[in-house]
Amino acid sequence: MITIAQTIEKIIASHPSYGEALREGIVNYSALARKMMPEIEDMLLEKVTEGSVVMALRRRASDLAGKYPKETVHPIKNITVRSDIVELAFVSTPELNRVHQKLLTIAEKHDNPFLAYGQGIGETTFDMSISLLPHLEELTKGQKRIAIFKNLSVISIRMPLDTVTIPGVYYPFVKAFAWSEINVYQIVSYFTEVNFIIDDKDIERAFTLMKTLTKRSQVQ
Asked: Domains in the chain, please, with CATH?
């Protein structure tokens, strides 16, 4: 039989903001209990009291404080920004792998262009310096293009090696972008590097957010 505590755990898993508020001790337990009660009752198929939910929330807050550390921005080695980026998406085909190889050869003759290639099950994307666009368009004649986005920039950050095994290491950045209504077209990650592809118009705000988060990590 499922318990109130188990329903709360499931609800928090789908609403991380509840868990953050509980962990930080900044939540009104009664207000949160009243908000969660309809969902709890749907899961339990019976009525519950506000007091019982509050009690379960307090226990869950204690568990969260002990299990999860406070949100941490781990040290960043450096932040770089590049503009004049374009993103293209295509329906995936085997030929696009060969296109990528040819584009790499062409890129070697350019002045350090940005080029990121990703192939999924149904879609393939190219994020690159706009100087490579005419070459890609020539190479992809006959391929089905889904979309093209211009006037983009990329913010790249380098993380220490030990962050590779830390869950949620990119979460503070993604959350900050979301709360600031900065759209991320693509996230291109490598071993200790992550690249956020965003609109040119948002680049200054995004860079400021990155610097602010980095400074905050230095005083934690």
From this structure: 4-67 (no CATH), 78-219 (3.30.2130.10)
